[in-house]
Write a structure and sequence with these properties.
- The structure is a single chain.
- This protein is mainly alpha-helical.
- It contains 14 helices and no strands.
């Protein structure tokens, strides 16, 4: 039987949750408030959270201050979606192989994937630049997509492998007895059962791809037409002033695709994250 919480314990839990949510949401709230304040009110002393002159002018003016802002937002979504699709195409068969097959250096290669995640993109910028230059991929979408895929594949393999191992192998063995091939079994038996896990992994990859665009964009891409939003926000910085309120407004608009993905896939994310938490 599950122990019931006392009233004081429930109050303590709710207070802790409120503090946690406040800690997580306060930066976004400050960004939103800053986008509504006039520029001259942003650096008042003493600091004032509430202003008497709130307006949505920044949300209108940001499109004229940075004419390519819409293109930058679309580029960010396109790059993140492309990285997600390409990464999942590699992750699914690799994770299945690590979950079900035995082959030489299996553990060593898994440890190698884990070691790759210990290195940040900044450590490998120079060799990546030389490789991309030799391949002729600089100043294209691929200059951001290829490094993103390379850095996110190890994480995807580790996440999906642990989920696939929870699927009963007896289901696959029954398909083999009926004459199904391993590819057919993966496509018609394993993947439908692993759909919640696939969505969790794909969402994690999408968020990772959306977050890591800045470093690769400013290093490997100098064409404005291919720049994502994080690099495009630099255009709000002028020679003598910075349009901070418009930059905050553009940043908030830029995270809307991620928020939409979360809201749309919320049901599947909860199912995937809690799968295997209870023994049957």
């Amino acid at each position: 039987m599950i122990n019931r919480y006392t009233l004081l314990q429930k109050i303590g839990i709710y207070i802790a949750i409120c503090f946690f949510l406040l800690f997580m949401l306060l930066p976004f709230l400050e960004m939103f408030m800053a986008s509504l304040r006039p520029l001259k009110h942003l650096f008042r002393s003493p600091y004032q959270f509430w202003s008497d002159n709130f307006s949505f002018d920044a949300y209108r003016n940001m499109w004229t201050t940075v004419p390519l802002l819409g293109r930058y937002i679309a580029n960010s979504f396109f790059i993140a979606a492309s990285v997600t699709l390409i990464t999942m195409a590699f992750v699914i068969p690799a994770a299945y192989a690590y979950a079900r097959l035995d082959f030489p250096f299996k553990s060593a290669s898994l440890a190698g994937f884990l070691a790759v995640n210990m290195f940040t993109g900044a450590v490998l910028l120079i060799p990546l630049y030389r490789v991309l230059r030799q391949l002729g991929l600089l100043n294209t979408y691929w200059a951001i997509i290829v490094p993103g895929v390379a850095f996110l594949i190890p994480m995807g393999i580790w996440l999906l492998r642990s989920y696939l191992e929870k699927i009963p192998i007896e289901l696959e063995e029954a398909a083999f007895v009926d004459g199904a091939s391993r590819i057919y079994t993966l496509r018609r038996v394993v993947l439908p059962l692993a759909m919640p896990g696939l969505i969790v992994v794909a969402t994690s990859i999408f968020i990772g791809a959306y977050a890591q665009q800045f470093l690769f964009a400013i290093t490997f891409n100098q064409e404005r037409a291919y720049q994502p939003l994080p690099a495009g926000l630099f255009e709000f910085i002028g020679y003598q002033s910075v349009a901070w309120n418009e930059m905050m407004a553009a940043a908030l608009v830029g995270v809307l695709p991620v928020m939409v993905v979360f809201l749309f896939l919320q049901k599947f994310l909860v199912a995937g994250l809690t799968a295997g938490a209870v023994k049957k």
